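Quarterly update from the structural biology core.
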Amino acid sequence: PRWRCYPAPEFTTLTSETPLPPMSPATEVPLPEGPKKPTWAYSLFGCFDMDIKLLGLTMCCPCITFGANAELLGEDWMLYCLFCILPGPMCYFGPYIRQKIRTTFEIEATDEEDVLSYLFCPCLSIIQETQQLKSAGMKPGGDAMNRI
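Predicted structure, tokenized:
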């Protein structure tokens, strides 16, 4: 035969003389809740729950929004606007700005998540960052938008 059946293993049973440990009632110990880590104000795909002007501007010309976000974080608007046009530098500076925002607002995430968000949906990442800055009372594009 192709398949061979093996006999089941034998188990020993406890005799009635074997004492069982006393059962104690289950008590639940509440786990202490630490302070919750902040998250992004909007999800990565929450761009449709916001200002449609920002969505249109970022989808048509993401370099303007990206440069404005960078300027709020103390970076040069024009330089980051140029980085956004070139795909190579954007793969580095996009996650860099995102990490800077995460550090500022103490958002729990990883550098890998930042890179993946810019690799697969850079415009949505820029919108999410802008929404985060707006929710904190910062006005993205203040001086940067006045130049246009």
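The chain has a mean pLDDT of 79.
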